[in-house]
Every structure is written in structure tokens, then in C-alpha cells.
Amino acid sequence: MLLKKIKKENPLIHCMTNVVVTNFTANGLLALGASPVMAYAKEEVADLAGIAGGLLLNIGTLSTDEVEAMILAGKAANKNNVPVVLDPVGAGATSFRTEVCLDLLNRVDVTVLRGNAGEIASLVGVKATVKGVDGAIEGDTIELAKHAAKKFSCVTIVTGEMDVITDGHHVHTIYNGHPWLTKVVGTGCLLGAVVAAFVSVSKKDIKAACVDAVAYYGIASERAFAETNEEGIGSFQQAFLNHLNKMTDLDIKQLIRTKK
Amino acid sequence: MLLKKIKKENPLIHCMTNVVVTNFTANGLLALGASPVMAYAKEEVADLAGIAGGLLLNIGTLSTDEVEAMILAGKAANKNNVPVVLDPVGAGATSFRTEVCLDLLNRVDVTVLRGNAGEIASLVGVKATVKGVDGAIEGDTIELAKHAAKKFSCVTIVTGEMDVITDGHHVHTIYNGHPWLTKVVGTGCLLGAVVAAFVSVSKKDIKAACVDAVAYYGIASERAFAETNEEGIGSFQQAFLNHLNKMTDLDIKQLIRTKK
Amino acid sequence: MLLKKIKKENPLIHCMTNVVVTNFTANGLLALGASPVMAYAKEEVADLAGIAGGLLLNIGTLSTDEVEAMILAGKAANKNNVPVVLDPVGAGATSFRTEVCLDLLNRVDVTVLRGNAGEIASLVGVKATVKGVDGAIEGDTIELAKHAAKKFSCVTIVTGEMDVITDGHHVHTIYNGHPWLTKVVGTGCLLGAVVAAFVSVSKKDIKAACVDAVAYYGIASERAFAETNEEGIGSFQQAFLNHLNKMTDLDIKQLIRTKK
């Protein structure tokens, strides 16, 4: 029933995200039924994060100034019981990114951490060989996710061909999704925002909200491909927005795939 | 005849706008026939604003640095008789935004102020209950628009289900448009840029140019929906760009709706 | 064979580009088969540029801070034999932009310079009358390109109705492309990124890589228009992404037009 709840309540999702995906993220949240607001100024981020339904911190094109504002926003969210989603884009690619993420995780109570396997591995300090464009690694993704969830005391989502959602103890796996999601920029980033929206209307069961969010997202991509198939990735991207908007809770219930 | 004039003269519209909508704004201006230029550096904004056909100031993702550059650009525009459109995105949502807008209105001669009812109400200091995603308020939008136009000595456009355009004395109402404009991010922001383009080729009758701009925009959205209907909001957004490009002055004349 | 090589190797293209076109650039690179990464922080740009397959410097919405980071990135690229493409967006429009470009050309070994005729003319100090939206000038574009290539010791691409590619001695002209490329924002900027990707897999023959990149790009636009024709520029933009993704080396070989 979470999709229905989002469409009814239009939760305000405060996104501090990278310049590559702002437009796509905002349109995706509108398609879902949430209300996006992007704001970065230190003078106002605490005000907005404090009244938001959810806060997204995405370090895709981070700067020192922006990180300082993220910490202000994160602390205000924590104080007001607003869930915080962290997307550690490119963690491991540079030591700057890894350090910033660890600093954020240290100073802000993050509710959900969402990344690909390579990013999450770099945060827990596991050496991992990244073997694909989606950041997949050789090794046990489920153990990796549990490790991160325990270390950072937050629900962790590791996305890939198999999506893993765990609080460190119980594990859910989702097999929805289409490979072309890796051919559209910002699909991982938008998922972080979508997770924030789902969690904002289901604070009592964060993990279940994450499962629904991830399945919803994957199913929409399957439908987009089924509809546009031969046309190409530009058409796929547009159809994906259409289906993010049209999906229902019943679709999620009927089409979620928890096994390979 | 303003559309024809824009397509002939390709007025340069200097946009200082938010990071969420820059691409959409630039593509919308190109569709209309104007020439967008985005520039934010203090070292050059006065040079560009001074030679532009119009200047758009949109505070959607403002920073202190950007506001300082906006004031430099605004003053250069004023000096060179370049019309200035202010879009007070999110005024009222944080006190920072409200204060920045009032400061801009104080230091720059704004030609046209465009916002939703909630934003404009916060600028004139009227307490208003916002009741919808489009920033609609309970209360008299026409009186609100007149109040703002008089207080800030500029043409004011309050957009919503009914669009109000006024110089504080004469009032025009427009009923074109489609509700899905609220499901595509940046449609309000792009309208501000479109207004700047229309005004740039019709400095002698600012108000009439605003009426044409608002009607043009609404009609394009009606056509986009008529064409794509069941497909969804991604398709609607693309068709909207197509129709922004294809519309003619005759379309505006024939399809403008000034009564409910 | 360069397209095939790009799709196999997925070269990492580090883009420091303007806020208007980041999303379009990243999606275009993904369509091509390259891996885009956008990063601007001084703390990390040298790390990323040093391991990238190519570096794009585009000054479309430059700031003093960003230019400093560009120089750090450019020097790291030079040190690691990573090709650097410079896109001098708006050079000549303000003296700030012209000076920044000349400074970049002075401090970084640029591999390829890509601009329209007006921009390149302003960099070599030639007075030119810009006569169209695509920055075309009155005068000899081939001589202009050769002049720039010699002056800055780099391959120079001057784009327009006729595209000119030269190392200062040998000249190639390409006549592919569609006028609607000027109606979609960022098509010039994306071409710079595409050139970086082609050059990254063909460092031994930079000029030939540029010829292929420019022809590839033009042919994709011709196909996009052929497919969507009457629909409009929004549809054209989407089809363009589809065809950037679908093109093959054989298409380039068969459809390249080197004469008017």
C-alpha cells in the first residue's frame, strides 16, 4: 500500500544530489507522486531537511562546501526523525570520495545506505575486484551487504543484477530490473531518491519499504523495455518515466521476483 | 505577432536559473526560437546581461555567491534597458529564500515577477494556506497579484489553474494549460524564461507580451496531452517540447481562453 | 573499428562540463559505449583525470574555482598521456571566457580543440562576423582551423554546416549532420565528449579518430531526423540518443560524406 500512500501524501523529499541527475531525479520523484525539492545552501538546508519527509545525500559531484551543507542537513533530519538515504557514488574511485562517505556515516545517522557492490566494498574496507559497468564484484554480495549494515547500523541496499536488502540480520533479494538501466545515466541515483520516498511513508518498517521500492523500480524498467524494445535507450528512458508514474501496489505484489 | 518576431530575431536570453532545470529551460527556449545562454560567474554576468534581450533570475537552487552575481547581472540589465524576470522559487519555504527575493526586488528593477500564489503571498507578507502541489492558496489570487504588482512596481504573473497577469491596475486571466504541467519538473521555471523571451521583443507592452507568453505555454501543454494522452508523463514532456516549437501566433489568437 | 573498440573497452571519460548539458553528455557517452564520470572537486580531479581514458574541459558555465580544477585535471592528464579535449564554449562572447581559454591552452597540452567558427576565431584573434546560430562566420573556415591548429599545436575541429578537422597541415571536411542539431541544447558539447571517447581508443591517429567521431555524430542526427521528421525537436532528441547507441563502424564507413 506504500505507492498509494505516497500518491496521497506527496512526501517532500529534500535531495542534495549531483548536477548530472538533478532533473532526472526530480522528474522520477514527481512520477512516483513525491514532491522533490533540491537545496544546497548552508543558510537553508537545515530548515528544509527538518520539515522534509526524507533526505537524500548523493555525493556524485561533491564539493567541500556541499559536504558541509550535507552534514547540516543530515543533523537536522536526525533531530526531526526524518529518514536519511546516503548514496556513496564513486566511493573507492578516489580516496576523497571514500573519506567523505565515511565522515558522513560517522556524523549523520544514516537510515539507508544504497550503492553498488564496488562502492559498498570500499566503505567497509573490503578489497573487491569490480568486474562490470554496474559495479558488480567477484565475491559474496550478501555477506558484503550484511557487513555494511552491521558496521554502519543502517539498512543497506546493494544493487546489481541481484539486489540485496538487509538490516544486517535478515536478507531480502530482488531479481527484478533490466540491464538497460545501466545505459541510462542516473538510474542508480534516482533509486536512492525513490527509496527515500518509500521510507518516508513507512518509518516503522524501513526494510520492507526498501524491498518495495527496489521491486517497484525494477518492474518499471521491465515494462519500459517490453514496450519500447527495438527503439533504443532514449525511448526506454522515456517509457521508464511513464511506468514509474503508472505502477500500482498490486503490480509490485504480483510482479516482484525474490528468487532467480 | 510576437512568436514570429522571436523566431526572426532569436533574442539572447541570459538565464541564471537552478541546476534542476537548466537543460529543460535551454531546450524550451530553443524550441521557442530564442537563444539561451547560461552564465553565473561574477567576472562575466554583467557583460552578458548588458547585451542580452532579456535576463531571467530564478532562485531555485540559490547560493550566496550566485545571488551576488544575480545582482550584478540585474544592475547591468537595468542600465541597458534589458527586461528582468524574477522567479522566486520556494519563497516562503525558507526565510532565506524570502529574504533573498526581497533583497533582489529592492536592488534590481524587476520587469516581471512570476510565481505561484504561495510564493507571491510570502513576498507581499500575506499569510496564505497553500493547498495544492501547484502552490495554489485559499483566497483571492487576483487581489494578491494586484497587491504584488503595486508593491514591487512590476507586472506580476501568478500561475495556477487560473493564471493572473496584472500591472496592479488592469487584470488578465488565462485558463489555458494542463494539470500534467505540475508533473514535469521545471515547467514553472521554463515559463519564466519564455516570458523573458516574449517581453524582450515587446518592451512597449510588457503586459500584453506576458498574456501571449502564458497562453502560448498553456496551449502547447494542451496539445501535448491531446497527442500523448494514455502514454504517460514522459511522453507528455517530449510532446510539449515539440509543440512549443510548432505553435504559431494564429494558434495563440484562436485558442487563448480568457474565461473559465 | 573505433566504435567497436569503444563498446569493448568502455573508456572512462572524465567530463568537466557545464551544468546545462551534464545529463545529456553522460547519456550520450553511455549510448556510445563509453563510461562518463563527472567530477569537479580540486581534491579529486587529478586522481580521476590521471586514470581516465580521456578528459573533456568545457567552459560553458565556468567559474574561477572550476577553471583552477580544470588546470589540475589537465596537468594530471598530460602527465599520464591521457588525451585532453577543450571546448571553448562562448569564447569571444565575454573577454573572461576568451582569457580563460587562452590560459587553459597555455597551461595544459590540449590534444583536440573543438568549437564553432566564431569561438575559434576569437581564440586566434581573428575578427569574424558571426552570422548564424551555429556560430558560422563569413570567411574561410578551413584557413581558420589550420591557423588554430598551428597556433595551439593541437588537432582542431571547427564545426558547422561543413565540419573541418585539421592538424594544421592536412585537412578533412565532413558534410554529415542535420540542422536540427542546433535546436537541441548541448549537441556541440556532447560532440566534444564523443571526440574524447574516440581519441581515447586511438591515440596513435588523433586526426582519424576525430574524423570518425564527427561523421558518426552527423550520421546519427541524419537518421534521427529521417525517423521522426514531422514529430518535432523533442522526438528528434530522443531518436538521436537511440541512433548514437545503434550505429556501427560499417555505418560510418558507408555514410560518411567528405564532399558537399
UniProtKB/TrEMBL annotation, chains A, B, C:
An annotated Gene Ontology molecular function: hydroxyethylthiazole kinase activity
Domain of life: Bacteria
Cofactor field: Mg(2+)
Keywords: ATP-binding, Kinase, Magnesium, Metal-binding, Nucleotide-binding, Thiamine biosynthesis, Transferase
A Pfam family annotated for this UniProt entry: HK
Residues reported to bind ATP: 114, 159
Broad EC category: transferase
E.C. number(s) listed in UniProt: 2.7.1.50
Gene3D superfamilies (UniProt xref): 3.40.1190.20
Binding of substrate, residues: 38, 186
Cited InterPro entries: Hyethyz_kinase (IPR000417), Ribokinase-like (IPR029056)
Pathway: Cofactor biosynthesis; thiamine diphosphate biosynthesis; 4-methyl-5-(2-phosphoethyl)-thiazole from 5-(2-hydroxyethyl)-4-methylthiazole: step 1/1
UniProt key word Thylakoid: no
Catalytic activities: 5-(2-hydroxyethyl)-4-methylthiazole + ATP = 4-methyl-5-(2-phosphooxyethyl)-thiazole + ADP + H(+)
Xref: NCBIfam families: PRK09355.1, thiM
Similarity field: Belongs to the Thz kinase family.
Function: Catalyzes the phosphorylation of the hydroxyl group of 4-methyl-5-beta-hydroxyethylthiazole (THZ).
HAMAP family per UniProt: Thz_kinase (MF_00228)
Listed name of the protein: Hydroxyethylthiazole kinase
